[in-house]
Design goal:
By secondary structure, the protein is α/β, with parallel strands linked by helices. Helix content is about 35%, strand content about 15%.
Length: about 375
């Protein structure tokens, strides 16, 4: 199956008909425990925190689509982040991009700093700037690319070289790009992370996190953490995520088609002062995105002309098809105000230094008819003229 193209792996990777019934889709094993013939004599399943056939089907699929050998599914994206942090020890240091999901930042600073971990938040546009922060205590480099919400693009291969030289792990949050557009393991990443709540699930009906690795020893450490701390996803969410993955490549093509058209539309709108979209040639990371991604994704951020909370709030409150809600990656279009929603946990001065100003709006462009999406944006933005 590893030799198949992505669309085939998305549907068939790691999957096989249920041996007992021939069911094409893995059954939802809604059970907490499993019968044993004698103590220790079982069929590979003892307790559903440790092993569940539906979750295992999802984990095999995750490994297949990311080009890894091991997949792990968690109760949320932040539970997956938490598992990565538990690989570290007091005194260890993490170099992280400064532009990252607010929940990840909150976990790093509010939860793990008090346990003796040290975090360095820095722009990662220049590899030399990252390398200058490496010390003997550097044990992990944390990358989001494209970043949330400023859509900065980070050179994964360059970060992998720095991590390898430092003897550190490279973790890449691949949520925005998805495995369809970007393969971090092939570029040198040790761990790939997803909020599978987003594009992998694709229908805004589950909360789930994922990790994929290619190293057996690292996988064993993470499997131990997954079981020991118990932040696993349930079988129903596993089933829904697996179903979502089967259409990922089809959905992403439409997300990207619509996003490119919306980005062009916004760039020419008089109520908009800036549009951030990696597909634009003047985007600082365009060349890297073109080299390490097979498309530019379905996310756009833009700034209203006044760069004020009042105007940004007016726009998102009057959108009809772009539902004002946290999250992204569903078939329906969503709008968000990062400064007051997804990134509110980041101090204002740090937010603004990263470009997350009060006038910034983030769009997750869905797969509706793009003509209707343009009309919706135009009607809301016209209120500012």
């Amino acid at each position: 199956m590893d030799s198949e193209h992505f669309g085939t792996r998305a549907i068939h990777g790691g999957q096989h008909p249920d041996p007992s019934t021939g069911a094409v889709m893995p059954p939802i094993y809604q059970t907490s425990t499993y019968a044993q013939k004698a103590p220790g004599d079982h069929q590979g399943y003892e307790y559903s925190r440790t092993q569940n056939p539906t979750r295992h089907a999802l984990e095999r699929s995750l490994a297949s689509i990311e080009g890894g050998s091991h997949g792990l599914a968690f109760g949320s994206g932040l539970a997956a982040v938490d598992a990565c942090m538990k690989l570290l020890s007091p005194g260890d240091e993490v170099i992280s991009t400064n532009d990252l999901y607010g929940g990840t930042y909150r976990q790093f600073v509010k939860v793990y700093e008090k346990y003796g971990l040290k975090f360095h938040f820095t722009p990662m546009g220049h590899a030399a700037d990252v390398a200058s922060l490496v010390s003997a205590n550097t044990k992990m480099i944390w990358v989001e690319t494209p970043t949330n919400p400023m859509l900065n693009v980070i050179d994964i291969a360059a970060m992998a070289r720095i991590a390898k030289e430092a003897g550190a792990l490279l973790v890449v949050d691949n949520t925005f790009a998805t495995p369809y557009l970007q393969q971090p393991i092939a570029l040198g990443a040790d761990i790939v992370l997803h909020s599978a709540t987003k594009y992998l699930g694709g229908h805004s009906d589950l909360v789930l996190g994922a990790l994929v690795v290619h190293d057996d020893a690292l996988a064993e450490k993470l499997y131990f953490i997954q079981n020991a701390t118990g932040a696993v996803c349930g079988p129903m969410d596993s089933f829904l995520a697996l179903r979502g993955i089967k259409t990922l490549h089809v959905r992403m093509d439409r997300h990207m088609q619509n996003a490119a058209a919306i980005a062009d539309f916004l760039k020419g709108h008089p109520a908009v002062s800036a549009v951030v979209y990696p597909g634009f040639e003047d985007h600082p990371g365009h060349a890297i995105a073109k080299a390490q991604m097979s498309g530019f994704g379905g996310m756009i951020s833009f700034r209203v002309a006044s760069d004020s909370f009042q105007d940004a709030s007016k726009v998102v409150s009057h959108l009809k098809l772009f539902t004002l809600a946290e999250s992204l990656g569903g078939v329906e279009s969503l709008s968000g105000h990062p400064a007051s929603m997804t990134h509110a946990s980041i101090p204002k001065d740090q937010r603004e230094a990263s470009g997350i100003t009060d006038g910034l709006i983030r769009l997750s462009v869905g797969i509706e008819d793009v003509r209707d999406l343009k009309a919706d944006l135009d009607a809301a933005l016209s209120l500012l003229l």
